[in-house]
Amino acid sequence: MNASLQTNGLNAWREFAHNDSDSSILKCIDACQHELHMWGQANQVAFDAGKESKHILKLDSPAGSTFNLLGVLFDDGLSMAEAVCKLVAEAGWKFRTLLWTRRFYTDADLVLLYKAHLLSFLEYRTPAIYHATRDILARLDGVQSRFLADAGVDKVDALVHFHLAPLSVRRDIAMLGVIHRAALGKGPAHFQKHFPLASPPLRKIIEPRTLLRHPIVKMSVFGLVAVYNLLPPRVVALNTKRA
């Protein structure tokens, strides 16, 4: 269970035991908020009260409202449904605008424009929404499927000729890349702590599901460790994220 205090430009969080009551957690958050305000007064720093919020993040009976962190909407139950719905709505007008110009371009040009202007927008939130259910992520996958259908490009042709795989496949590849980067000892050090090596020469990762048994773990990047450990040695031996 995580509890957080979000202020203007500052986030504070702390882990609590699952059996801790919400009232005791909120008292701790209030104490943190009061201490922060006292520090602000002493250092002539003012915080926007309208941007402050308190949240208790847990899968059962969460507390608080949806909040924005680095451009991603997080609900306190971490279902990510609202984030995906907002993303799909915003992507809708972008891809319709792109299709309005189709008479000036070939199908190949349209796909290239999609990859240049829309794909990065769709994939920016991948690490945050990866653990969402298939039903929720299917709404996002439908954006690319509708674009290809309207552009008259078959999904197989998109993959073979334009190197454009379905969004679900691209998400899996991206998160496997996070694991591989940790196995290479690159990137943020805390990633290497999340994915420690069991046998460094073979780059096998310790299976986290033996320690973390909650169903959400299987849907998250931690669930991909079992897949990564099944990759051929010649693949994991590569010192790059791209094969």
Summarize the structure.
With 243 residues, the protein is mainly α. Helices cover 51% and strands 12% of the residues. The protein has helices spanning 22-42, 81-100, 107-117, 119-123, 126-129, 134-151, 155-162, 167-183, 189-194, 215-219, 225-229, 233-236, and strands spanning 2-7, 10-15, 53-57, 67-69, 72-74, 197-199, 204-205.
Order of helices and strands: EEHEEEHHHHHHHHEEHHH
How much helicity do the residues have? 40-55%
| Number of structurally distinct domains | 3
The strand line-up of the biggest sheet is: 2-1-3
Briefly note the structural class of the backbone.
Answer: mainly alpha
Dominant shape: globular
pLDDT < 50 runs, ≥5 residues: none
How far apart the termini lie comes to 38 Å
Number of strands: 7
| Content of β-strand | 5-15%
Average of per-residue pLDDT values: 85
Most strands sheet: 3 strands, antiparallel
Radius of gyration: 22 Å
Q: Number of helical segments?
A: 12
Topology:
Blueprint: E1 2-7, E2 10-15, H1 22-42, E3 53-57, E4 67-69, E5 72-74, H2 81-100, H3 107-117, H4 119-123, H5 126-129, H6 134-151, H7 155-162, H8 167-183, H9 189-194, E6 197-199, E7 204-205, H10 215-219, H11 225-229, H12 233-236
Antiparallel strand pairs: 1-2, 1-3, 4-5, 6-7
What can you tell me about this protein's structure?
This protein is mainly alpha-helical. The protein folds into 3 domains: 2-74, no CATH class; 81-165; 172-236, no CATH class. Helices cover 51% and strands 12% of the residues. It contains 12 helices and 7 strands. The chain has helices at 22-42, 81-100, 107-117, 119-123, 126-129, 134-151, 155-162, 167-183, 189-194, 215-219, 225-229, 233-236, and strands at residues 2-7, 10-15, 53-57, 67-69, 72-74, 197-199, 204-205. The chain has a 3-stranded antiparallel beta sheet with strand order 2-1-3, covered by helices on one side. The protein has a two-stranded antiparallel sheet with strand order 4-5. Helix 2 packs parallel to helix 6 (134-151).
